[in-house]
What does this fold into?
Amino acid sequence: MITLESRAGRITRIAALGLWLVLTLFPLYWIVVTAFKPTSDIYRFPLEYWPSTFSMENFAGLFSRANFGTYLVNSLIIATVSAAIVTVISLLSGYIIARFEFRARGAVILAFLVTQMIPAFIALGPLYQLMVTLGLVNDRTGLVFVYIAMCIPFSTIMLRGFFENVPDALEEAAMIDGCSRIGALFRILVPVMTPGIVAAFIFNFVSCWNELFLSVTLLTSDANKTVPTALNGFITSYNIDWGSMSAAAVLTIVPTMVMFAFASKYIVQGLTAGAVKG
Amino acid sequence: MPSPAPAIERRTAVPASLVPPSGGEATRRRREFSRRRALTIAAFLAPAVAFVTLFTYYPMFSGVFGAFRNWSIYNIENQSWVGLANFETILADGLFWKTIGNTVLWVVGSLVPQFVIGFALALWLRRRFRFRGVYQALIFFPWAVSGFLIGILFRWMFNGEFGVVNDLLMKTGLIDTPLPWLADPALAMPAIIVANVWYGVTFFAIMILAALQSVPDELYEAAALDGTTKARALWHVTIPYIRTTLTLIVLLRVIWIFNFPDLIFGMTGGGPAGQTHIVTTYMIEITQQGDYGRASALGILVLVVLMVFASFYLLATRERKEARR
It folds into this structure.
């Protein structure tokens, strides 16, 4: 309900929202500023809140001294392939859970919900050994398999919510006209749900792009490393080179931020549905 | 001009499956139909179930057995049964008890401020304003970033020598000399909690806003007619109405914060000297040392705690579903 707001109330509200916005964006601002400072300015007092000289040396160093290009390509391939496969698989499973009543339905939903509460890293050791058995250690394909499994439950729950917003009559009509079930799903439902599916893809992509513990455990050679694994490598030494680290962080954050900005509305919808509907 | 006849024909012709057949034919058809339906369900679900079973549940269950074995990466061929020895090692480990205390501090210390600030933001965001959509998208940005990277951003800001936090605190005169935030155990714990509060507020703000928007206006109108003040309306109308949703959000957050080693991993790596480890970061460190048996035993303890919270969560979901019926 919208009531009249006093002048003081209005000022408090705007000030509070403004303050939180500044606090939210400051860490991002600070890492970007650091990334563009020459090394000598990063470690010098007084701190500069706006760089007096802009420099690209940190970014250039990432590609000349470290194989950052390789890591970016690895991350891009792994995240794209995993997210694409997950999205297709969970379209199928989300559809079934949204549209059919069957005996194992409750058990499947429960099994998926439970994985949301138990983190993937709880069984890193056993997972590593499983991958040894399958011959998939230090293999990007192996990591893709693990990421698919990691993303399926949430993606399914999210897409199920979007299916439930589409009336059944749509695909029933198509099937009476002689369309097969899978045909109705991909030719009738998918076009209607495109924004939701894109959001699910983006969410899956970002989860895989950001994932650390599984990739650190399963990828051992430098040529296979993903971006988070490489960032982790930057840390383990006692002296962190904050110029390179900031530049690498900026390159990691920017793509996901852009993607999220486009899909945030649908991701919020999916999250509220996933978290609160159950 | 194409003749419209076929379309009309198709619409008038009843599909064979809809014609009521007679006797044994009907039973056969029905059986055929339910067999095909079961087949569709199984085929569509199979890929999802197969991946989750093999790569999520299988390692989890083999981890449960691994907790009772001497299972080390350096002696992988020779896995002897050791009973409860791994658990005994953990319980005798001083650092383990330290991590328990830290975990409680981490969960409660992060959750309460996140909830309070998130609730306030949600209330302030309820009123429409011109750039509300843009505002929500902007404060949503931390979510596009991994917890690990957030940890790195804050590690740099809390840097003892060139960190911006010290600089700002000194400029405002709150401290005179730079503080070694992440090198001093007494300061490192508050620092990682500050970072986590910052990260989690948006989740609460957005979830609580969604809940607030579900409260029907009529309730407020009735309250306003009775001359209720805003604060009383919030306490007596809004909060009771969204109580179960709030419980769900809080439980889910407890689980997620408990399961959130990423930020600590990026910010302190559990240091200095293990003083900022929570149970999950400690477990990951033991895994990385190659002692899978001990890590699995710790994993079981984590699982037990999670199961308790998860069952509360699932019970709350059920309660709400029934309340809605």
About this structure: Residues 1-13 of chain B have pLDDT under 50 and may be disordered. Chain B is about 70% helix and 0% strand.
